[in-house]
Amino acid sequence: MGRGGKKKAQDLGDWHLWTEVTRSVSPLKPEKMQSLRKITPPDATDKLKSKPDNLKTSAAQNAPGKREWAPLVPHTPQQQLNAQPHINSVIRAKVADKRIDAKTQRKLRRGRTPIEATLDLHGMRQHEAHGALSHFIASAFARGRRNLLVITGKGVRRTDFAQFEQKGVLRYRVPQWLEEPHLRGMIAGIEGAGQSHGGEGALYIRLKRNSK
């Protein structure tokens, strides 16, 4: 038998073998086909389709209008001073039991009660102003003076950057120094001065009577 005859016989044998195999195989029922579809993983095109939605969600979360910014907290000493309350509020919070009575306040503001001694702290450094204030109070008390004026200055200056106003150090520190034990025992009352005596840049200090 030639090569062509052998090939035909081989093909015929393969066909008979395939026929026998297909006879033993039964087709899948529709229910089984549906279950196979459910467990089939999504193809790459489905994954790519889902990505734009994720990107949109992320972009919406990071949009400038949706951000919540933490409040600014002052860090430098100057920024901390800028965040302090008004000088009169500081006094009232710390020496609520040492206020000048309303009648005396009116007389001081209108000039009916004279200022007996004045201390000007302009241009002094903190340690210099602290020492000068202590000496001034002690000296006035020893001499029997009662109505004093301490000028701290409004402590407002212009900066080169955006022309911001900044409060001075002495404006905040003087009320704290007046709370020290060696001074507060001599003080009968403290109050922010009237406009004619410097307003926010000055303090009225009324001393106790010196019985000695």
Write a structural description.
With 212 residues, the chain is of the alpha+beta class. The chain has a domain at 88-207: Ribosomal Protein S8, Chain: A, domain 1, CATH 3.30.1370.110. 48% of the residues lie in helices and 12% in strands. It contains nine helices and six strands. The chain has helices at residues 3-23, 30-39, 44-61, 77-82, 87-94, 102-110, 126-142, 169-177, 181-184; strands at residues 117-120, 147-151, 157-158, 165-166, 187-192, 202-207. Helix 7 links the parallel strand 1 (117-120) and strand 2. Residues 52-60, 69-87 and 161-167 have low confidence and may be disordered. This is Smr domain-containing protein. InterPro entries: Smr_dom, Smr_dom_sf.
* Separate helix tally: 9
Low-confidence stretches: 52-60, 69-87, 161-167
Q: How large a portion of the residues is in β-strands, by DSSP E?
A: 5-15%
Highest CATH level, the class of the domain at 88-207: Alpha Beta
Shape call: rod-shaped
- N/C terminus separation: 150 Å
Mean pLDDT across every amino acid position:
69
**Coarse structural class:** alpha+beta
Rg, Å, rounded: 45 Å
State the CATH architecture of the domain at 88-207.
2-Layer Sandwich
Number of strands: 6
Region (Disordered): 24-68
Domain Smr: 119-208
Protein name: Smr domain-containing protein
Biased composition (Basic and acidic residues): 44-54
